[in-house]
Write a structure and sequence with these properties.
mainly beta, Immunoglobulin-like, 3 domains, 6-stranded mixed β-sheet, 5-stranded mixed β-sheet, 7% helix, elongated
Amino acid sequence: MLLRNKRVGTSFIRDHSLKPERSLVPRNCSLPPNMKTFTKWVVLGSTASLLSIHPVHALDAVQGGTPPVPLPLFPADNWWNLDVTSWPVDSGSAGYIAFINNGGTRHLHPDFGGNAATQQDLYGCYGFPFVVVRNVVSSDLQSVQFQYSDESDGVNHTSNTSFPFYPIPSAAMTQPYWIEGGDPGNVDLRSSQDRHLLIVDADRNQLYELYNVFYNATQGSWLAGSGAFFDMNTNNRRPEGWTSADAAGLAVLPGLVRYDEVYDPSVTDIRHALRFTVRATSGHVYPASHTAGSTVGAPPLGARLRLRSSIDVTLRTSDPSLQKLFRAFQRYGLVLADNGSDMYISGTYDPRWNNDVLNPAFSALTASDFEVLQLGYNPSSGPVSLSSVSINPSAVTGGQTSTGTVFLTAAAPSGGVTIALADNQGSVTIPSSINIAAGLASAAFSVSTTPVALTENATVTATLNNVSKSTTLTVRPPAVAAISLAPSSVTGGTSSTGTVSLTGAAPSGGTVVQLTSSKISAATVPANLTVPAGTSSKTFIVATTAVKANTSAIISATAGGATKSATLTIQKARH
């Protein structure tokens, strides 16, 4: 069982006593029989003592390369990629959130970024690097000696011996930024850092992940705490009780925030859950397979948090790309994968990240903005049915738009499902149907309205397989939004121009607005005005009389059940 002492945050004390070894070409050296296809050699060590000889591998490797398509990683119905908007909330949600808040208010933090070098830490960086390899052949595969070999892949568990299995690029031995933390593989930082090495075989759509790696140049071998293989063409889960390169037994890479997803304008939605940590955990639940703590009151590994649907992400950040990420928090949630710092969201190492943008945006969200979903929830594999339909906002002024969402009881099967839509009011327009794609459990549709003179309650109905669900959208007539006076101070006997603004466009026939003055002896207004149909504002004149002393009048406008006021100052004329 893997119980780790995890790092806190992303700052480490690094050991630079080991430096990248020099690469030399040996003289008078012949190839062994099993390496006849290689014509170039790299020797790691010194000229005085040839420590180990390695062929230059045939594979192509790119740090932070393009992941294999289609995205997201793993099948559409994998637990990382399920739409959780309709999943039930756990009865212990409030207690788990209180644990995470730890007596205060815990803000989110992006546990990723770019380079963070210092004089003491020349290769310091934030986030998980990952490697994309292609053209892998059997001679590229490396054996890795594991601390937790009984729960690692690439090991003959009968004899407890490792065999060539992991396509590790040779550059990872001596070059920076291939391994988490930044330093090359031949720098031993296992006691102070996690040192993950994530490798994607893009040709085969396979994922290799290693935890706590070190390349021992003296022995000519890779060492690691644990290692895991994931065939991303399947939903195969780790054996129950096994770890992976992550404490929960899950894959790391599919849960990372990636720069290409966040800032590529062609990617309209991030369609997978995100990895996060808390300071301590207790047990594990599906989809996790491994336990790494037993702290009373702490959530289990595998727990999933969801940003509350009531949170308007546009009010938390003005960056549309980060709004897209925060919407993924609502639709796919966060998966608890390891012990670390509370509400640290994991992402890839990428020098393009701007933490001056990321940090304040993430900090605008807190643990209390989330809810814990039912622990271990695994959607039914049987036929899906319609769960509900909702509209947000559920009340609008005629002429404004809203967004409807239909929810299924589980993820849609291959080919998706089509939901029929209908409404009973002429002021509301919706599509006749909406398709929910395979692997998703919800889909949104647009709701448009037209201006109305009286409040209308429209019933919107969704139907699937003769099962119907309904919700109500209230369409209101426009109300007074504001009143302004220009100028707001006049000399008695002169006039001011008032402007009434509505919350929406006036309907056919216009909208009548009642006007009043609190001091008609000094300032008078028309009894009412009509805002023309299709417009949302109209002006009027405030007439004043000469006054013996400075005074003021409150000018008010009322319509649609709302009253707004502005103050007009009337000054005594100077002679």
